[in-house]
Amino acid sequence: VKTSSAIPGNDVILTSGIAIEGTAIIARESKADLLAAGLSESEISSASKFLDSPGISIVKAARIATETGHVTAMHDPTEGGLAEALDEMAQASRTGIAIDASKVTIYPETQAICAALKLDPWGLIASGALLITAAPEGSSSIIDALTRSGISASVIGKITDPEEGLLRITDGTKEPLPTFDRDEIARLY
Fold first, then answer.
1. Are the CB atoms for 135 and 11 separated by under 8 Å?
2. How confident is the model over 145-184, as pLDDT tens digits?
3. Which of 48, 61, 71, 96 is most buried, most CB within 10 Å of its CB?
């Protein structure tokens, strides 16, 4: 399955959540800074375990999704986070994308760490998430198969025509998808 085979009208599905790897790295490498910023030992400990749970491998999710026969494209968001991965998928497929920000899973630990260190989770290394596109009639089959295997997934947006650009919709307001000069973890360190 290619990154370049998404087509307008496809749903965009996200597995797990965003910034999983970035959350774990920061919790492991910047504990003192996080404690000083007001995070609890419990929050930091929980975040430091993200490499294993929810985990950063997308192999199982990719296999399960592909076996449904409904996947049109897939992409593994890593460096540059969700925003960069969506941009890469749109460029490769020569499409636009519209994402509903309220549908994107951001773990509470990630939100706390990003708020404390003034980072944007949309631009933080996101290994552990998988972007999948499918025709709307196939999305529920993919999500159901993933859910049965213990992998959370949801439709977060649509592939659009290229002239519509890359959009993030927040509380009904359309704005350009954020861009980052470099991954937020590189900016931090």
1. yes
2. 999 999 999 999 999 999 999 999 999 999 999 999 999 9
3. 61
Distance CA 17, CA 99 (A): 14
Nearest CA to 44 among 54, 33, 52?
33
DSSP-based three-state secondary structure for 111:
helix
In angstroms, what is the C-alpha Rg of the chain? Answer: 16
Q: What pLDDT, on the 0 to 100 scale, is given for residue 1?
A: 86
DSSP state of 129: B
- 180 closest CA partner among 98, 80, 77, 104: 80
Residues in CB range of 50: below 8 A, 6 or more apart:
20, 21, 23, 24, 27, 56, 107, 109, 128
Contact yes or no for 95/6 (Cβ under 8 A): yes
Residue 168 β-bridge partners:
99, 175
